[in-house]
Amino acid sequence: MFKKLNKKKNQPNQSDFELDLHNIPEHVAIIMDGNGRWAKQRKLPRIKGHYQGTQTVKNITKVASDLGIKYLTLYAFSTENWSRPENEVNYIMSLPGTFLKTFLPELIENNVKVETIGFLEHLPNSTLNAIAKAKEDTKDNTGLKLIFAMNYGGRAEIVNSVKKIYDQLTAKGLSSDEITEQMIDEHLMTHAYPDPDLLIRTSGEQRISNFLIWQVSYSEFIFNEKLWPDFDKEELINCIKIYQSRQRRFGGL
Ligand code: IPE
Ligand code: IPE
Ligand code: MG
Which atom of ligand 1 is nearest to the CA of 38? Predict the structure, then answer.
């Protein structure tokens, strides 16, 4: 079925294939990268790139919801991003407030449920309030789960999980022999979600940058060349077609 080759690159040309609506990845995770470079290309301040990136979030959420994706996890701010200049960090922290004001009615209309992973306790109150409102107003929605990773870091998440397990075991007088993969999994912030089927990183960078490092053990990785503000429906559909052309083996044959 996927035999047609693009002669130039000797690779299947994904746009030649139909999207298989019966094989849509259940959980798509995206490292939304390239906002700064998008702004730089236009000689704009970096924060303009972040603003434009939120427009892509709106667009891609709608497309994901229409395609029947069940979980969309978006890496919005990492535990390492605090090292950026203060004005940039402050601007990113203000985005949930400004962006959710206009986006929330659309999310409700599309039956989208907003959730988060990350160390939210370290966020400014105004950011927390905006996120809390979005969660509250969408809590009964049963469609796409839109999960924002805010102040998220995979290593810190695993350390936290292990600490919780340690406390539980010592309280019960049990030893580390009891620790299983399932226990670590259940104490992660993602415990309620299946592992991502597909991980997309935009902007051409090919690294994981501390995102869901435990959970992507068997995810399909796609590194897309577009800068996040330029990522659109066509690109997402192409990524899903590439995903559909792959064979997942999970260590088997
Ligand atoms: C991703 O875009 C958004 C965040 C990390 C918050 P960047 O801001 O990293 O954009 P580049 O990588 O500098 O282009
Ligand atoms: C990863 O992008 C974090 C987010 C997209 C939120 P970065 O731009 O921070 O990653 P590095 O620094 O290039 O690895
Ligand atoms: Mg970046």
Answer: 14
Q: Is 33 in the pocket of ligand 2 (CB under 6 A)?
A: yes
Q: Tell me: the pLDDT tens digits for 87-132?
A: 999 999 999 999 998 999 999 999 999 999 999 999 999 999 999 9
Residue 12, pLDDT above cutoff 60: no
For residues 181 and 96, what is the distance between their CA atoms, to the nearest angstrom?
34
pLDDT of 1 strictly over 50: no
**Model confidence pLDDT, tens digit, residues 168-214:** 999 999 999 999 999 999 999 999 999 999 999 999 999 999 999 99
**C-beta of 78 in contact with ligand 2 (< 6 A):** yes
- The DSSP output letter for 69 is -
Distance of CA 156 to the CA centre of its chain: 17
Q: What CATH number was assigned to the domain covering residues 23-154+196-245?
A: 3.40.1180.10
In 3D, which of 233, 241, 200, 253 has the Cα closest to residue 1? 241
Query: Among this protein's residues, is 81 annotated catalytic?
Result: yes
For residues 167 and 224, the answer to whether their CB atoms sit within 8 Å is no
Q: Which residues surround the ion ligand 3 when the cut-off is CB under 5 Å?
A: 33
Q: Is 33 marked active-site?
A: yes
Among residues 13, 20, 23, 33, the one annotated as catalytic is 33
* Domain residue spans of the chain: 23-154+196-245
Among residues 13, 81, 160, 210, the one annotated as catalytic is: 81
